[in-house]
Amino acid sequence: MPRPEPTDDDLRAAIRGAGLRATRGRMVVLGTVITADGPVSHAELAEALGGFDRATVYRNLMDLADAGLLRRFDVDHVWRFEALSLEPGDPRHPHFVCTDCGQVECLPVMGFEVSERVPAAVAARQIDVQMRGVCDDCR
Ligand SMILES: [Zn+2]
Ligand SMILES: [Zn+2]
After folding, report:
1. Which ligand is closest in space to the CA of residue 100?
2. CA atoms in the 13 A half-sphere facing the CB of 21
3. What's the order of all strands across the beta sheet hosting 78-83?
4. What's the whole-model pTM score?
5. CATH 1.10.10.10 spans which residues of the chain?
6. 51, 52, 73, 74: which one has the fewest Cβ atoms less than 10 Å from its Cβ?
7. Tens of pLDDT along 63-93?
C-alpha cells in the first residue's frame, strides 16, 4: 500500500503531538518508516539512512516507538518497526513473514472466533499474530 509522503510539517506536528522534541533525526527516521514498503528493521533503516550514525537511528526508533508513533514487534528475534501515526493503521493487523526471503508484509485485520478458554490477552486481541509461508516473489 503506497503511503503519501509526509511533509516536514506533518512529521514535526506528529512528533510534537506525541510529546517529543522534533529533532532532525527523529523526523528523518519517522518519515522513512512511514514511506517504507512494510515493517522495517533497524539494520534496513540504518542502511537506507547511510549518513546517520546507527546508534542514533536505533535510539530514535525506540523513542518514537515508546511515544506511540511507531509499533514495534519481534520477527525471529529482530525488532521490526512500522508507523502508527499520520495514517493510522489498525494496530491489531497481522503480519505475513516469508520463510524464504524473510520479507514481512502487513495483512488486513482478520477476525477469528475464540470458543475455548484462552488467556485474557488473546480474548482482548492484545496479541501479535504472524503468519508464515512463501511470499509471491519466492513462489
Ligand atoms: Zn519471499
Ligand atoms: Zn503491519
Report:
1. 1
2. 3
3. 40-41, 78-83, 70-75
4. 0.83
5. 8-83
6. 51
7. 999 999 999 999 999 999 998 855 556 667 8
